[in-house]
Amino acid sequence: FELQAAVNLALDDQTLKLILIKFCSFQEPESLPHLVKRALRVLPTVTWRNLKSVPPNSRFWTQIRYHMPVKNSEGFRWNHLRSIPEFFHWK
């Protein structure tokens, strides 16, 4: 299962955040591994609704943005260069 591989990867790398995107009805089979069943219950799920989901201000994209990790707004600043040790000598 792709979901099981993604969950395992997310457990190893805490910087990853999983979002399930549902694009058709899904009947959960009994044979799913426990980890996948738990992921289906716990992870955020966003539903794609064909043409209704296309516009960037649709509910789909609003929910995707909501569940995405917070972007670092600090960005690059020139004063960060001061923290770099003077390893290089410029001539």
TrEMBL record:
Residues 1-68 form the TIR domain. SUPFAM superfamilies: Toll/Interleukin receptor TIR domain. It comes from the Eukaryota. InterPro entries: IL-1_rcpt_fam (IPR015621), TIR_dom (IPR000157), Toll_tir_struct_dom_sf (IPR035897). The keyword Hydrolase does not apply. One of its GO terms (molecular function) is interleukin-18 receptor activity. Transmembrane segments: none annotated. Keywords: Disulfide bond, Glycoprotein, Immunoglobulin domain. The keyword Ribosomal protein does not apply. PANTHER family: INTERLEUKIN-1 RECEPTOR FAMILY MEMBER (PTHR11890), INTERLEUKIN-18 RECEPTOR ACCESSORY PROTEIN (PTHR11890:SF23). This is IL18RAP protein. It comes from Neovison vison (American mink). The gene is Q3KPE8.
